[in-house]
Write a structure and sequence with these properties.
Layout (H helix, E strand, L loop, with lengths): L1 H37 L4 E4 L4 E2 L7 H10 L3 E2 L8 E5 L2 E5 L3 E3 L2 E3 L3 E6 L4 E6 L2 E2 L3 E2 L4 E5 L5 E2 L10 H11 L11 H14 L9 H10 L6 H17 L2 H11 L1 E5 L2 E4 L1 H9 L8 H10 L12 H17 L5 H8 L15 H12 L4 H4 L5 E3 L4 H18 L6 E8 L5 E5 L11 H4 L9 H9 L10 E4 L4 E2 L5 E2 L10 E4 H6 L3 H11 L1 H11 L20 H12 L3 E2 L7 E3 L5 E4 L5 E2 L3 H17 L16 E6 L5 E7 L3 E8 L14 H12 L12 E7 L13 E7 L31
Parallel strand pairs: 1-16, 3-4, 13-15
Antiparallel strand pairs: 1-12, 2-11, 4-5, 5-8, 6-7, 8-9, 9-10, 14-15, 16-24, 17-18, 17-29, 19-22, 20-21, 23-26, 24-25, 27-28, 28-29, 30-31
Helix pairs in contact: 1-6, 3-9, 3-10, 5-6, 5-7, 9-10, 10-11, 14-22, 16-18, 16-19, 16-21
């Protein structure tokens, strides 16, 4: 007997020791990780804010579209934040306010007055406003590997009725218990015994939070005991408001594809397209009711079941004194009011670019759980227009739907990427062709060849004759490269500007061989091409593998007069405390002689006026000046167009993923998307500004010799000072005659 008692005492000591060690471990687990789990937030990615000021070129329809995107509600009379009313050309709204990296924009009532195409009046409380910034669209999030999403809220931001309703339904004794409810446990135990298995747990809010943070969803006695002890430990270390706030940010409320919806704030946006503080009582009750079973009570799939559950919640809230009977009756009479469940990741191609830029600055485990707020130059209006143009033209070109496309749009002034289409279905995740498709660029690389030549004014000008006849170039392995023109014709001697405008392959190949491949490679790198290129003769006609984003870098440098500017998708990064971690300031680096770039601009303008890109003006107004270049690869496998106005640059590609022929040229394919988009989106044409060291001379457009105004074949061309032709046709100036498109530019302002 003594031996047995001794054994039992030792066993008891061992069990107590094991229990204490386990308790110590659980305590350490909670104290060491509660804060990190409490704030394990995905990065939020924001578009640019819409800035409203008198004189802004914003038609009323564009502002109304922005309000719709932001989830503002149109009402007959504005009372609350997130509402607007329209009376004729006047819009009255109550903005929500927002904390930007550079300061807080307060919520306020404002009145906007519009003319046909611009904002003519902006006031608040009877006083004129200099500027009003609407909150930016949250265009997506970058989530941890487990796919959870959250919007962080503070307890003081939660409506009192939502807090009271939650406690009335889930945990009436929350503020008096020590982490568990004995009566709830007894009630659950009786139910489990009746069913013969574990079907209920009687969990308090604290226990539910412990389970969500630390435990699996298995229903076993062992897990339930661990949950009980951890709940008591959590109550020892943290006060009730902290626990309730964490629960309201953590609770699971549904699924959006691969993305889990956690917390009331995100659920409000997901189900109602509204901030939590703007929800009606009936909407708050619906979210509370869904906690019991987010799928079972999903209002989109099971509306009758969800409504029954909502009305029960409202009834209990009235019985518990959270609301009165009249409020409950009114709320029960309301419809579910569920929105379209707008996904937050509706711009996957752009988010992909943001992720890649983030990986250059942070580890994924840092930026995906640190609750960063990432501000981008993404423009929802331009994105929607790019998508509309893409869909409209692609459906007309290829009703079968087996061709693919991609586009990148930037602001020429600073290299900000404002819109991206990564495929035929722009809102679908998958292969991002704008970033990852690697295709030959065809004639899109020709401007680099001509620019390298124009940097040598002693040898090449726009009036230099080039030989457009057949040629054969022997390779080191005995192969022979013999390029042909698209029309299979040779054109003899043609002036340099016309060879580029008409995209003659033979003239370009001869020019590239004359200046040398090293000069072409050097120019491509200076223009912003980062990757290695094939150092073979066919490089001058676009050989290699390039994405639309790579080509956007090259043409961005061309568009801003030879100044290289990194393309930017991130403007600022702010941590969850509101501290700015990074401000990406535009960097400028002179890469190319601006005089040579000026001459190239002339030739690229000529491309769209007289050359392969003249189809642009089937969409654009005749007096809206742009510049660009078509690109077509062998057998019509790739159709490209790159070009720019005074405010926007866009690069578009069309092709097949299997690299088969498309039957399209640059002008019959990609150009059409580009032109359709620019006709709706671009607001500033290119204007003419001649840099120092450049002067104008008239030449004979056939011989390249100087000639007089009004003489046959006379054309006004820019030349780097001192490089103009020395020979003359001898034709004296005559009457002015017909002015060409270039001469009409001189009435324009600076760009």
């Amino acid at each position: 007997m003594n031996r047995l008692l001794s054994f039992l005492r030792k066993l008891a000591l061992v069990l107590v020791a094991v229990f204490l060690v386990g308790l110590f471990y659980l305590n350490a687990l909670i104290t060491d990780t509660f804060e990190s789990k409490r704030y394990a937030l995905p990065a939020q990615v924001f578009a640019r804010p819409l800035e409203l000021f008198v004189g802004a070129r914003l038609p009323q329809a564009a502002v109304l579209g922005e309000l719709e995107r932001l989830g503002y509600r149109r009402v007959s009379r504005v009372r609350d934040r997130g509402e607007y009313e329209v009376v004729g050309n006047r819009v009255r709204l109550h903005s929500r306010g927002f904390v930007f990296p550079d300061g807080r924009e307060p919520a306020r009532m404002a009145t906007l007055e519009f003319s046909s195409a611009s904002l003519q009046g902006l006031s608040s409380a009877g006083a004129e406003l200099d500027i009003l910034r609407l909150e930016p669209l949250q265009m997506g999030g970058i989530y941890p590997a487990h796919g959870e999403d959250r919007l962080l809220l503070r307890l003081e931001e939660v409506p009192d009725t939502l807090q009271g309703g939650l406690l009335a339904i889930e945990d009436r004794n929350f503020y008096s218990h020590l982490g568990f409810s004995p009566t709830g446990i007894v009630r659950a135990a009786l139910g489990n015994m009746r069913s013969g298995r574990v079907v209920a747990g009687g969990s308090t809010i604290t226990q539910q939070l412990v389970k969500n943070y630390y435990l699996s969803s298995e229903r076993t006695l062992r897990r339930k005991l661990i949950e009980l002890f951890m709940a008591m430990l959590m109550e020892l270390h943290y006060d009730k408001p902290e626990i309730l706030e964490s629960y309201m940010n953590e609770v699971y409320l549904g699924q959006d594809g691969p993305r889990a919806i956690h917390g009331f704030a995100l659920a409000a946006h997901h189900y109602f397209d509204s901030p939590l503080e703007e929800l009606g009582l009936h909407q708050q009750a619906l979210l509370i009711g869904m906690i019991r079973g987010p799928s079972f009570y999903n209002p989109q799939r099971n509306p009758a079941r969800a409504r029954e559950r909502r009305d029960l919640v409202l009834q209990v809230m009235a019985e518990q004194g959270v609301i009165n009977e009249e409020q409950a009756v009114v709320a029960q009479a309301m419809p579910l009011s569920v929105g379209g469940s707008r996904r937050s990741d509706t711009f996957p191609a752009y988010l992909d670019l943001v992720r890649r830029h983030l990986t250059e600055q942070y580890r994924k485990e840092d930026y995906a759980t640190a609750g960063l707020r990432i501000f981008t130059p993404f423009d929802p209006r331009l994105q929607e227009q790019l998508e509309l143009s893409t869909t409209r033209i692609m459906d007309a070109l290829n009703p079968a739907g087996d061709l693919q496309t991609a586009s990148v749009v930037t602001r020429t002034v600073n290299g900000e990427v404002v819109a991206i289409v990564g495929g035929r279905k722009p809102r679908t995740t998958g292969f991002n062709r704008a970033l990852d498709a690697r295709r030959p660029a065809g004639s899109l690389l020709k401007p680099a060849v001509y620019l390298a030549a124009l940097e040598q004014p002693e040898a090449y000008t726009l009036a230099t004759p080039l030989d457009d006849s057949t040629l054969r170039v022997a390779g080191p392995n005995g192969d022979v490269w013999a390029p042909r023109n698209f029309d299979r014709e040779s054109h003899g001697d043609v002036l340099l500007h016309r060879a580029l405008a008409k995209s003659y392959n033979q003239a370009t190949a001869r020019l590239g061989m004359d200046i040398g491949l090293p000069a072409v490679v050097d120019m491509l790198q200076r223009l912003g091409l980062r990757q290695d290129v094939p150092r073979v003769p066919s490089l001058v006609l676009g050989a290699g593998e390039y994405s639309p984003l790579m080509m956007a870098r090259v043409y961005q440098t061309i568009a801003v007069d030879g100044t290289r500017t990194p393309l930017r998708s991130i403007l600022s990064i702010v941590n969850r405390r509101g501290e700015i971690l990074r401000n990406n300031i535009t960097e400028y680096e002179r890469a190319v002689d601006p005089r040579a770039i000026h001459l190239l601009h002339y030739a690229l303008r000529e491309v769209v006026r007289e050359g392969t890109g003249r189809g642009v003006y089937r969409s654009l107004a005749e007096d809206f000046h742009v510049a660009g270049k078509t690109g077509t690869t062998n057998d019509g496998r790739d159709s490209w167009f790159a070009g720019f106005s005074g405010d926007l640059l866009a690069v578009t590609w069309i092709g097949r993923d299997n690299n088969n022929a498309t039957g399209l040229t640059g002008s019959s394919g990609a150009l059409r998307i580009w032109a359709d988009f620019m006709a709706q989106a671009a607001t500033r044409p290119l204007s003419y500004r001649m840099p120092a060291g450049v002067e104008l001379h008239r030449v004979d457009d056939r011989s390249g010799e100087l000639t007089g105004e009004g003489c046959a074949n006379a054309r006004l061309l820019p030349f780097i000072t001192g490089s103009q032709p020395v020979r003359s046709t001898g034709c004296a100036p005559k009457s002015e005659g017909i002015r060409g498109w270039f001469e009409k530019l001189f009435g324009g302002g600076d760009r």
